[in-house]
User: Fold Short-chain dehydrogenase/reductase family protein from Mycena chlorophos.
Amino acid sequence: MSAYQKSVLITGCSAGGIGHALALEYHRYGYRVFATARKLESMAELAAQGIETLQLDVSNAVQIQEVRQTLSVKTDGKLDILVNNAGQIYDNAITDSEVERVREIVEVNLVSPIIMTKEFSPLLIKAGGRVVLIGSITAILPLPFTAAYAATKAGIHSFSNVARIELAPFGVKVINIVTGVIQTNLWRDGKLPDDSLYKPMEDLYITHRLNIPQQGSTPVADYARGVVRETTKTVPSDWVYLGHNSLMAWAVETFAPRWVVDIMMNRTFGFNGVRRQARAQEGGVRKLS
Assistant:
């Protein structure tokens, strides 16, 4: 009989993203990888590598249960690692946010990892497995134009803390990856809505919100190697900081008062300039009236 092969289920494995890179790296480590995404064709490269791919929309409760049943049969009811990676970016100002889009972000980024952990907990408990959550430095650093996304990641950080305590008695470890800026295909070209309060400052938005964060960003393959290395350790850390600016986020969270952080963010992302332009416009409106 062949030796037992550990298994990992990863959500959000479409080509070009973090989950795709994680699937390749766990596969390289010898894990039996179950990669999931909303569209099977987005994982064609993984299937070609011998990785098992399954269709899964993490906001669809029926599909989650179907994948759980499939894995239970394929792995004798065990799952060694669940990686809750699936997520969506939403980089709009609060005042430009679309209500339904915000609800979708919360559903995919926060609600779904909670439901996934619940549904797969029997398999994880049987294996003495691990839950890996993909957090973000946006939950720590108040980066402009990330409010909805950052709120979901702050929720993930809190969820990881509670889940770690609740699942520990059953031998399941919970690991939160505080993710820095990673080179993926999720970044979009910057364009503000025509009616945005920030439209007159769009040049500042493009320069400071879109261009600066990507400078020095960590290649997704390097990030994946770090995640797999940390999550397969005999005694893993509860929180792992990986990727560009993640250690800065740790230092800010540990040592810096809020007012210092606010000054740093205002300078870094050009909001001092935004404030000056807003005041100039306000003055012009007053003169016209």
